[in-house]
Amino acid sequence: MNQRTTMKLFVLLGLLMLLSCGYADRHHNSSSCEQVLVDSLEVRVQDSLFSNLHYSRSQLLEALMQTQDSLVYYRLLALYGKTFFVSSDFDSILYYNRRVKEFSRNASQSSESLQSPQWNDVLSDVYNIEGNVWMQLNRPDSAIIDYKKAYGYRLKGKRLHLLSDLCINIADAYLHRSDLAHTASYYRRALFLCDSLNLSEHTKFPVYYGLGQTYMELRDFDLSNHYYELAGQFFDEMSVSEQWTYLNNRGNHYYYRKNYQEALKYMRRANALVSSYPQMVFEQNFIKVNLGELYLLTDKLDSAQICLDESYRFFSDIQHNSAVHYIETQMIELALKKGNIAQAKTMIARTAPVGHLDANMLTIRNQYLQHYFEHTGDYRRAYEYLKRDRHLDDSIRSERIQMRVAELDMRYRQDTIVLRKEMKIQRQAAEMRVLKLSVSIWVLVCVLLVAGVVIVVWYMRKKREFLRQRFFQQINRVRMENLRSRISPHFTFNVLGREINQFNGSEEVKHNLMELVKYLRRSLELTEKLSVSLQDELDFVHTYIELERGRVGEDFVATITLEEGLDATRIMIPSMIVQIPVENAIKHGLAGKDGKKELMVYVSRETNGIRITVTDNGRGYLPQVVSATRGTGTGLKVLYQTVQLLNTKNKSDKIRFDITNRSDGQTGTEVSVYIPFRFSYDL
Predict the structure, then answer these.
(1) Which fold has domain 529-676?
(2) How far apart are CA 134 and CA 176, in angstroms?
(3) Cβ distance 416 to 194 under 8 Å?
(4) What are phi and psi of 170, to 5 degrees?
(5) Beta bridge partners of 597
(6) How do 597-606 and 556-562 pair as beta strands?
(7) Is 661 strand, coil or helix?
(8) What CA–CA distances, in Å, run from 166 to 124, 247, 417, 418?
(9) CA pair distance 211, 229, nearest whole angstrom
(10) How far apart are CA 127 and CA 82, in angstroms?
(11) Which of 538, 639, 637, 625 has the alpha carbon at shortest distance from 588?
(12) Which of 283-287, 515-519, 586-590, 591-595 has the lowest mean pLDDT?
């Protein structure tokens, strides 16, 4: 029978129904007749929803224009809104559902029709399809709320056989949240309802592939495969959407087993299936995401690029943030495999955090970010993401004990249902014992979990504190060694030799020897300190300059100027931050220079800190000869290390250190240091 003949038959049946209604009492039976027509129309719409979406909507629109009863009208309106789920037009679904709910709230609550089982079924359908929308938009919490409302209305309706489907939907939402205990509980309830309502085995296959996915999340692949095999027996009896779900989940099962070729086989089957239905655009792009990742893992990079680009455009257009986030994660790994480090870095920076991310998505992102930082040589951050991945994996595995208990509980319940008619009293007593045992086990498991969490948190804190202390000890040891080695042996012995050879008892020589001793002692004192007062630093610099005058020459002029109003005794600065630039200026800029030699140290106030400027008229800044970053200047290396260490502990205002050639037209070097007043020197 072709489609045209079928449509004529439906029209004929509809006319017969209308005629039969016309012979009855119109005031009493018109509504019930319309209900019968709606039931028939709903079946036809459901059957043609995937094969001919336009036909389904046109039938509903025609019925909406002809109906006279308000309840029938809004029931049809709810059914019409449901058709937009196939084409992923979620805004339209929410709009029509909102109209139905507003009618239900505003209509007379005393109306028997609004309290009828039929209307409760309508409201259950409305909240169920809304829950499906929230699931597609990655909002499982909202979905659970609507699914539970749908369950409550269904209990008061006539279509009780759909209760198990609602339990499956609730379980799927909890599964998306990685709440595996609630997931298993609602799957068990679904099986319980199937048996209690004497439903056929065919109704159980969604539960089976749901349990298959649950145990896949727990990486119990034996049980997962068992339930998928049970579900696969009913594949030919599934609807298109159910077949797609089964194939996708089956592919995920092999993906997590790292059997990528088998996973590709199922994903390609799913893709071929939905490609035959143009209205299933959401499912088509969803499969492209999974195919893109599998192509990525099997080094089919061009195919991966095509799939990810196409799906990225779709999910960006519908603002599905979690899907966009997941695709961008895949693009990071893809760029890395193509050797495009810059693009990978751009994708990481562009990827914004979203609300909810399931555990599997977080695991994949942690692994790919670990790959990126390993590739770029940032092994510390790579190790951080490795630890995150292990912690997340451990948290999932910790649910296994609960799931084992749940599995035993489920099997026991199934056995008692089968024997319910013959052993009713014994079954009730056994259920009470199981309930008490389950409560005890749950309490024990919770206590053990809490204790385990407390121990892990305490251990991680202790370990983190130990590593922090060890890190800072190493840093301080390196800094102390570098600072101690900064004092030039050549300078020390040259000055000592010169002064001792010249010693003839004069007061000047004695004074110079005393100043040298003072300098050495002060150097050792400053080595032990991370910060000193500005006054102490300037005094130390003054001593050093006086000791160096003999070597530099008589035409050496040095000035130290402190801006009026600054209290040098209360201002703290890093140790050696002035002395080192002064020493470099004398050694590398002024020593050996002909003519007048000038050295100027100027300290001034600048906004919320001070500016220290060390200027000389030497040969100028030659970074190719003296560069801290190239390791040729010991003093500057120590200074840069110290500043960098301190800046990492100060999150707001930081020390700024610059070395340039003079900008006033003269030859020479200018070192400029900005130090905030409220700078912390505590490590």
Answers:
(1) Heat Shock Protein 90 (3.30.565)
(2) 12
(3) no
(4) -65, -45
(5) 556
(6) parallel
(7) strand
(8) 9, 21, 20, 23
(9) 11
(10) 11
(11) 625
(12) 515-519
For the four alpha carbons of 623, 626, 628 and 629, in that order, the dihedral sign comes to positive
Report the amino acid identity of residue 338. K
Summarize pLDDT for 506-517 with one digit per residue, the tens: 666 656 666 665
Instruction: Assess contact for 408 and 185: CB atoms under 8 A.
Output: no
Here the tokens at position 330 are 């895949």
DSSP 524-562: HHHHT-SEEEHHHHHHHHHHHHHHHHHHH-TTEEEEEEE
Sheet hosting strand 609-616, strand order edge to edge: 556-562, 597-606, 609-616, 669-676, 656-661
Looking from the CA of 352 toward its CB, the CA atoms found within 13 Å total 5
Residue 681 banded pLDDT, cuts 50, 70, 90: confident
pLDDT in tens, 348-362: 777 656 655 666 666
Domain with CATH 3.30.565.10 in the chain: 529-676
Q: Are strands 656-661 and 597-606 parallel, antiparallel or unpaired?
A: unpaired
pTM beyond 0.70: no
Separation of alpha carbons 108 and 87, rounded Å: 35
Six-digit token string for 46: 């459901």
pLDDT of residue 669: 93
Token pair recorded at residue 323: 């899907």
The dotted CATH code for 278-398 is 1.25.40
Distance CA 548, CA 584 (A): 12
Cβ contacts of 491 within 8 Å, gap of 6 or more:
none
Delimiting residues of CATH 1.25.40 domain(s) in the chain: 278-398
Identify the CA nearest to 285 among candidates 88, 106, 146: 88
Alpha carbon distance 286, 292 (integer Å) = 10
List, for residues 539-583, the tens digit of each pLDDT value. 889 988 888 887 787 789 999 999 998 999 999 999 889 989 998
Which residue, 96, 153, 98, 99, is CA-closest to 128? 153
List for the chain the helix, strand, coil content (%; round to 5). 70, 5, 20
- How many residues in the chain? 683
Q: Cα–Cα distances in Å, from 560 out to 14, 551, 615?
A: 105, 19, 11
Asked if residues 338 and 350 have their Cβ atoms less than 8 Å apart, the reply is no
Task: Output phi, psi for 569, to 5 deg.
Answer: -75, -20
- Contact criterion met (CB below 8 Å) for 98 and 106: no
- Report the DSSP pairing between strands 609-616 and 597-606: antiparallel
- Burial of 462 by CB count in 10 Å (0-12 exposed, 13-18 middle, 19+ buried)? exposed
The contacts of residue 1 (CB under 8 Å, 6+ apart) are 9
